[in-house]
Design brief:
The chain is of the alpha/beta class and about 325 residues long. The chain has one domain. The protein has 13 helices and 8 strands. Strand 2 and strand 3 form a beta hairpin.
Amino acid sequence: MTSPRPESPRPVYGVDFSAAAADAGTKTWIATGTVADGELVVADVAPLVEVADLDAAGRETALPALAAWIRGLGDDAVVGIDVPFGLPRFVVAETGAASWRSFISGFPASIGVGGGDDTDDGAVDRADDPVRAFAERCVELTERHGAGTYDKRRTDAVVGARSPYGFIADTIAFYGMRDVLAPVLDAVRVAPMDRVSPTGPTDGGWRPGTPPGPTVVETYPAAVLDRRGLRRMNYKGGGDEEATRRRRNAAELAAEADLTYDREPDLVDAVVADAGGDALDAVAACVGAFTARRRGYETDTAEFDDPEAVALEGYIYA
């Protein structure tokens, strides 16, 4: 009897994203792994400046480099990124965009935020602070629809994530959508929005016209940890207690997620040594991407009041 042919290893990446003006390149970390025969092996974790061999760490250099790195990945790669991929459905609907792709491809002009030049179409134009212009425009639309001030997407509410235009996430969301997602749209597949049925059976495949390329998904390290009963808070910091929590999270994540670390214990020690927790978050993002692929990019929308919203809002794989 012939033994089953082993599954060819496929690359899986986790990106803990930062849009910090001065040091996005050192605060954005990437975990590199492979998956074969149902197991994820994390081989490396490093900041973007090392992965992309950058001479500068500032946002203006780092974010285009991250987009270029994603574009250069093979069709068999899966990338989980810790950044909001979209906005609440009523915000997207206000733009008249027919799909998530059409919305993101025109962002931020698609929500009426100008790019710095005088405009005649009523767009908010604040070149000195585009993030504030973005957040204010979203708040305006939220109040118009009677949803409060900082509304969440359905997927945010379920996993305990913040509003993508609240004061904590607005910078990450703005630069992530404008400078990373929009520039790679012609070279990637995005789940679940590019699936034939974002909420239906996972064997439906990709929508016609979806470009070949790596599959990109949104993930959220805190939710990845939380869903596995691990500590989602108080593991970032330079103290012994925080380091102990990072080590415990790294070890228990392996036990709970079919994950092994290459070059253990050196790699785990490197994850623990990063006091900011970005290395650990990159590993968790890698687990989010691995889980999404293993489940065929299926969405669990049982707790959503509007399951179909994921086609416009996006979905967090945790």
